[in-house]
Amino acid sequence: MRGRTWAGAVLVLGVQLQAFWLAAAVEVYTPKEVVAVNGTNQRLKCTFSSSSPISQQLSVTWNFQPEDMSSHEPVFYYLKEPHKPPSGRFKERVTWDGNVERNDVSIMIWNLQPTDNGTFTCQVTNSPDVYGTIGQVRLRVVQKVNFSEIHFLAVAIGSASVLMIIVVAVVIICRQRRRKAQEKRTEVADAELKEKESLKRREEKEDSPLED
């Protein structure tokens, strides 16, 4: 009996610990993918939710993994205050753009380059909530659109707009013609009905007996 009681107590304790872990976990939210133009700046948004009030021990860790799947690189760290990376590709190109009081731990990457293509991870701990999800956002840096591409895009948009105007005009004209045709058929039907009624009254008058 003692063995069964002990096993039951362990099982109940395990369930309670699992429930506590799920309740105390930090949930992190990031967009799945961000596309930015080469040479511009991009805000990497990261927000979180925690079952505990925001504490002085709240920490935020941003890391980066290039597309070639090489080792992770530190990007940014927050603990009581922002801490820029002491070295690496983002040393002079990353700034804090969050507000922990609003559950926002976003950062800003400046002067984006094609070598910045890869996956950024955002991890938040808020003691006693030290476990939870890790946000992942894939960054794609594209080249600037040249003049020929802009010209082609403008022509394509203009052509589509003209085509849309033509289609709308044709639809309006067809509807107007259909309405006029319907009105004309209604007028003809009314005229025919009036003529039949008039003919019927005339026939009834002719067929009625003459008064003495």
TrEMBL record:
Membrane topology: Single-pass type I membrane protein
Residue span of region Disordered: 179-212
Signal sequence bounds: 1-25
Coiled coil regions in record: none
Transmembrane intervals: 150-174
Lineage: superkingdom: Eukaryota
InterPro entries: Ig-like_dom, Ig-like_dom_sf, Ig-like_fold, Ig_sub, Ig_V-set, Myelin_P0-rel
Keywords recorded for this protein, A-Z: Disulfide bond, Glycoprotein, Immunoglobulin domain, Membrane, Signal, Transmembrane, Transmembrane helix
SMART domains: IG, IGv
Comp. bias intervals (Basic and acidic residues): 183-212
Domain Ig-like stretches: 24-140
Database matches in Gene3D superfamilies: Immunoglobulins
Keyword Transmembrane helix: yes
Location of this chain's protein in the cell: Membrane
Name of the protein described by the UniProt record: Myelin protein zero-like protein 2
Gene from which the chain derives: MPZL2
